[in-house]
Amino acid sequence: MRRLRSSTVVLGGMGVLAATITACGSEPDKRCVDRLTREQLPRYECESGSGNSSGTYYYGGSVSGKKVSGGSFDKTAVDSGGFGCSGTGGG
Q1: Which terminus of the chain is more solvent-facing, meaning fewer CB atoms within 10 Å of its CB: N or C?
Q2: pLDDT 10s digits, 13-50
Q3: Are strands 67-72 and 56-64 parallel, antiparallel or unpaired?
Q4: DSSP-derived 3-state class of residue 59
Q5: What is the pLDDT of residues 61-86, one digit of tens each?
């Protein structure tokens, strides 16, 4: 019985470690938006093969109504963060 409990604790700890590593390496949210108005657009507006793509990706932040805020057009400026991760905000 005692060994079984010990194994359960070890396996549980490995799950927490795996979740932490995954959270630190995850990509920030990205949304297709109009660069001038900051209004969210359909994803196809950001696809390069669409010919006249009018949108660009906006990383992180949030959407209120149809407008995005609190993120950045520069993916490297946004860190998705997570438990045990350090990061900087976007601008």
Answers
A1: N
A2: 555 545 544 556 677 889 999 999 999 999 999 987 65
A3: antiparallel
A4: strand
A5: 999 999 999 999 999 888 755 554 55
Among 5, 23, 1, CA closest to 13: 5
What's at 39, amino acid-wise? E
The position carrying tokens 């005692």 is: 2
The tokens 């991760």 sit on which residue?
A: 85
Q: For 62, left (φ over 0), alpha (ψ -120 to 50), or beta?
A: beta
Read off the DSSP letter of residue 2. H
- Which of 36, 34, 32, 35 is closest to 44 using CA atoms? 32
Helix H or strand E segment including 11: helix 2-25
C-alpha span between 48 and 39 (Å, rounded): 19
